[in-house]
């Protein structure tokens, strides 16, 4: 019985250390993508910012495997404000070196990418915001988009406090 309590205490201590190390995080969530990310599939996140005065940095997070066969990634990111205003951006990110080696962090075949979305955003409207993320990949020379994108396992969205490096 004492061993179980000691083990539980150690587990809680380590968990709180891991969570407290990320003090910049305001919102951070991932959603799994089925085997293939269909071009019509939209990954949505709902968030309520803590205030309407401070500025934040926004990121799209992505986990991908070696099955991802492109050097870049095109995303359509849409932010819907609480009062109905919508901002839609088409973004391009570099996902691999010219040699084909995938960018991102991770020691296994799963790479994590933290991709800039917007810098210094002030959530001036109070209430719930919705962020919608959809891939917009095209193969070189083809008009129709990639119907099912392979190799993306999770899509995430992150809001961080802005820190000064003084």
UniProtKB/TrEMBL annotation:
PROSITE patterns: PROKAR_LIPOPROTEIN. Pfam families: GldH_lipo. Coiled coil: none annotated. Keywords: Lipoprotein, Signal. Residues 1-20 form the signal peptide. The keyword Ligase does not apply. It comes from the Bacteria. NCBIfam families: GldH_lipo. This is Gliding motility lipoprotein GldH. It comes from Allotamlana fucoidanivorans. The gene is gldH.
């Amino acid at each position: 019985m004492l061993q179980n309590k000691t083990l539980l205490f150690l587990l809680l201590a380590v968990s709180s250390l891991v969570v407290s190390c990320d003090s910049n995080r305001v919102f951070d969530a991932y959603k799994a993508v089925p085997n293939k990310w269909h071009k019509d599939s939209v990954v949505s996140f709902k968030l309520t910012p803590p205030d309407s005065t401070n500025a934040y940095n926004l990121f799209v997070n992505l986990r991908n495997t070696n099955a991802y066969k492109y050097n870049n990634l095109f995303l359509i990111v849409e932010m819907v404000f609480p009062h109905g205003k919508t901002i839609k951006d088409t973004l391009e990110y570099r996902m691999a070196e010219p040699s084909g080696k995938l960018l991102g962090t991770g020691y296994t075949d799963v790479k994590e990418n933290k991709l800039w979305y917007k810098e210094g955003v002030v959530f001036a409207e109070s209430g719930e915001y919705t962020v919608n993320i959809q891939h917009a990949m095209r193969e070189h020379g083809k008009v129709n988009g990639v119907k099912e994108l392979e190799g993306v396992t999770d899509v995430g969205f992150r809001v961080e406090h802005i820190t000064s490096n003084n």
